[in-house]
Amino acid sequence: MADELLNQSATAVGELIRTKQISPVEVTRRALEYAHAKNDVINAFVSFRDDAAMAEAEKAEKEIAAGEVRGPLHGVPMALKDNLYVAGEVTTMSSKIHGDFVSEHDATAVAKLREAGVVLTGKLNMHEYAWGIDNNSPHFGPVHNPWDLDKVPGGSSGGSGAAVASDMSYSTLGTDTAGSIRIPSAANGLVGLKPTHGRVAKFGCYPLAWTLDHIGPMAKTVADAAAMLGAISGFDHRDPTSVDVPVDDYLADLGGDPKGLVIGVEEDYFFRDVDSEIERLVRARIEDLVSRGATVKKVQIPSLRYSEWTELATSLSEASAIHHQDLIDRPQDFGADIRFLFYLGELFSSVDYLQAQQARRQIKKEFTAALGDVDVIMAPTLPVMAPDIGSAVADLNGSPVDLVQAFIRFTGPSNLTGLPALTVPAGLNGDLPVGLQIIGKAFDETTLLRVGGYVEESDPMHGRRAPNAA
Q1: Which residues contact 404 (CB under 8 A, 6 or more apart)?
Q2: What pTM, to 2 d.p., does this model score?
Q3: Is 248 exposed, middle or buried (0-12, 13-18, 19+ CB in 10 A)?
Q4: Cα separation of 321 and 335, whole Å?
Q5: CA separation (Å) from 388 to 49, 133, 143, 163, 428?
Q6: 194 pairs with which residues across the strands?
Q7: pLDDT digits (tens, 9 = 90+) for 345-373
Q8: Is residue 408 a contact partner of residue 133, using CB atoms and an 8 Å limit?
Q9: Which member of 3, 299, 407, 438 has the lowest number of beta carbons within 10 Å of its beta carbon?
Q10: Which SUPFAM superfamilies match (predicted)?
């Protein structure tokens, strides 16, 4: 029974709670017991909220017993990335410098999860200050990929990805500046959604790069991601990038079939220099949709050739501005990898930064034009597979390539444009999962989630789960 309970998706266990087949108290107690025991293996958690979580579970149980059901996630326990503030509790950003930082307020997204009745079980390991993709933390230790404990889980939301894939958390939130939701979601066989910039308010989330940061769900299923997005979306005047637009009922809007769907494929950038098996699996998922009534149309986005430089010039400049004073006063307290990146960010001139914004504007213009002719654009999420922990390179069809550059190459453009992007499992390359990325029109997460559901229906993972899951 224990394994069956932990293996459930967030919405499935939420339904069991709503129909009183199981109590939030029982679910939370079991989730905490398992997470504590499993953390020695995965190292996904940096802190637990045992007493607070049990109190929240008891409150949820009383509300549900009284018929006051808040929604599909009411009473469901989950942990959060450790750059999302929880009032009165330590949020470290997996850093030494903020090792004792306590916020006076919840992040907007955290407050919204509380309103949805979610039980918060703890904080999850991440790459220091969210600026990295292997989650090999000098302060909290490396996170291990539940599919292969020797492999990186991706980052910066690596603890989030590993926690959900290993059943230590039913769902979670990640943050994404160059792919940090989608990279670990793909590497851990999860569904990960970077919403449209402005859809989810970022107040109370420690920034990496103001104009590129996003908050979004990381989940076991498309339905879970839809429920999570519905819970956290909405305008907040305290975030200057928040946009006041209607919030759809993403969970209710799932369904239908792919007949008539027009899929855009950009060959020159998104299918260049890709692991051959990743490419085969992604194209197979597209062909499956075609066999069910979808059509494919080739699109061109020539300015994508500038996207890698544009992403780095923007993110490094903004991140270095945020950390500038600490870089002067206490550089030794940063991990060596991000200290180097912050120093590098100080080398960009104002001319470099502003030229990057011009390139960024052109990339967005071309993406918008391409999406005017198709419903979504599909591509691999990552061009390479997750390497061993400690490796600075990945393998690309027998040749070593820089890990950071490779991992953000296909995810970064959606941060530059602010367009929504979803990754869903596309299958297994050997014993490791592969992600398919779906990019959509601004504020049209409904279509992305619906299309992700079409891919999920074909069961590309053939029922396989991480060996280190419950």
Answers
A1: 132, 133
A2: 0.97
A3: middle
A4: 17
A5: 31, 13, 11, 18, 17
A6: 421
A7: 999 999 999 999 999 999 999 999 999 99
A8: yes
A9: 3
A10: Amidase signature (AS) enzymes
What does the pLDDT average to over 200-208? 98
Angle between helices 222-232 and 108-115 (to 10 degrees): 110
Using N-to-C axis directions, what is the helix angle for 10-18 and 24-42, rounded to 10°?
A: 160
Write the CA distances from 177 to 35, 136, 213, 290, 318, integer angstroms. 27, 18, 4, 32, 11
d(CA 20, CA 35): 24
Amino acid residing at 349: S
Q: How far apart are CA 122 and CA 286, in angstroms?
A: 38
Which residues are catalytic, by number?
81, 156, 180
- What is the model's pLDDT at position 203? 98
Q: Does the 2-457 domain belong in CATH 3.40.630.30?
A: no
Q: Is the pLDDT of residue 239 over 80?
A: yes
Look at residue 1 and tell me whether its pLDDT is greater than 90.
Answer: no
Burial class (CB in 10 A: 0-12, 13-18, 19+), 307: buried
CA distance 83 to 90: 10
